[in-house]
Amino acid sequence: MRNESSVAALLESAAQGVESAWRELFRRYSPLVSAVCRRHGITGADADDVSGNVWLQLVLNVAKIRNPEALPGWLTTTVRHECMSLLRGRHREVPDEREPADPAEPAADEPLLHEERRVTVRCEVARLPVRQRELVSMLLTDPPPSYAEISSRLGMPVGAIGPTRQRCLVRLRRSTAIAALQEVHDRSA
């Protein structure tokens, strides 16, 4: 396709799938696409992604362009939208300087931390009043017994089991040892 071909003829040929028309459009307007990316601070692989998306949009919309002479403006607007979309996406990302963890492989200190948590919780449960300690122990069995069974074994009304359990949990959460474990967990999460 000759360089002096009009934009209208190029777009018409491109809409019909003529490869040389697409090559000529790309040759003519790639510098414009790159310049708009640079104005937005988009370079390297990100600029390549934006450019690819812009050309894809042109492929999808080539037959809808009514004023072929406005193609540079259409491309500029499309590049600007793609750049802004990319930049908005960056603001949503939270950089993490830590090494990405392999979810299949636990951290080296994970077994030690698990054991420390288990021992701390057991010690704090042991400090509960006898009736609350027995209730928590029963609720932590796998599978836990039904409320009717707990009521029978502890001589506690079924309606009192939930509120008693709630008081136990509040008491455990308020313990300084469990609060410290929670604080460490929150910082590492």
What does this structure look like?
With 189 residues, the protein is mostly helical. It has two domains: 7-92, Rna Polymerase Sigma Factor, Chain: A (Orthogonal Bundle); 110-188, Arc Repressor Mutant, subunit A (Orthogonal Bundle), CATH 1.10.10. It contains nine helices and no strands. The chain has helices at 7-15, 19-39, 44-61, 71-92, 110-126, 130-139, 147-154, 158-174, 176-188. Helix 1 (7-15) packs across helix 2, helix 2 (19-39) crosses helix 3 (44-61) and helix 3 packs across helix 4 (71-92). The protein is rod-shaped, with a radius of gyration of 33 Å.
Shape: rod-shaped
Q: What is the architecture of the largest domain at the second tier of CATH?
A: Orthogonal Bundle
Q: The biggest beta sheet, please?
A: none
Number of domains: 2
CATH fold call of the largest domain: Rna Polymerase Sigma Factor, Chain: A
- The total beta strand count reads 0
Features:
0% strand; Rna Polymerase Sigma Factor, Chain: A; Arc Repressor Mutant, subunit A; 189 residues; 9 helices; mainly alpha
A few lines on this structure:
The chain is mainly α and 189 residues long. It has helices spanning 7-15, 19-39, 44-61, 71-92, 110-126, 130-139, 147-154, 158-174, 176-188.
Topology, element by element:
Elements: H1 7-15, H2 19-39, H3 44-61, H4 71-92, H5 110-126, H6 130-139, H7 147-154, H8 158-174, H9 176-188
Helix pairs in contact: 1-2, 2-3, 2-4, 3-4, 6-8
